[in-house]
């Protein structure tokens, strides 16, 4: 029997994160790059930027995003998603609300 793909959780997340100043593309693309660089984040819908604070080498960005996260099997998927995002490089604050769950994995392009 083939192994099952872990469930995917779609969450609405309010985050404060650091985006490098030298990132290519728009600020929103920089946010997506930071979030998809976190292991377990499969994709991110278009983020909404709610604030920007310039710093020496980066930008502190307040954002609302809808990442799709592979959470595996656990008792509290929302807590697992929050912990996964909080552990990401450059992530300073995370508030997560569950919006949906998918059981089939999408192919990242």
Question: Can you describe what's shown?
Answer:
By secondary structure, this protein is α+β, with helices and mostly antiparallel strands. The chain has one domain: Alpha-Beta Plaits, CATH 3.30.70. It has 2 helices and 6 strands. The protein has helices at 27-36, 77-86, and strands at 8-20, 41-44, 48-54, 58-65, 67-70, 91-102. Strands 1, 2, 3, 4, 5 and 6 form a 6-stranded antiparallel β-sheet that branches. The model is unreliable at 103-109 (pLDDT under 50).
- What is the CATH architecture annotation? 2-Layer Sandwich
Could you state the order of secondary-structure elements as H and E? EHEEEEHE
Please indicate the count of domains: 1
Runs with pLDDT <50, length 5+?
A: 103-109
Give the N-terminus to C-terminus distance in angstroms: 27 Å
Largest sheet descriptor: 6 strands, antiparallel
Quickly count the helices: 2
So what's the oligomer here? single chain
Query: What would CATH call the class?
Result: Alpha Beta
The overall strand count is: 6
Mean pLDDT: 85
What sort of overall outline do the alpha carbons produce when their principal axes are compared?
A: elongated
Structural class: alpha+beta
Q: Percent helix among the residues?
A: 10-25%
**Rg on CA atoms, Å:** 14 Å
Strand content: 35-45%
Kindly identify the CATH topology: Alpha-Beta Plaits
Concise structural overview:
The chain is built from two helices and six strands, in the order βαββββαβ. It has 109 residues and is of the alpha+beta class.
List keywords for this structure.
6-stranded antiparallel beta sheet; alpha+beta; single chain; disordered C terminus; Alpha-Beta Plaits; 109 residues
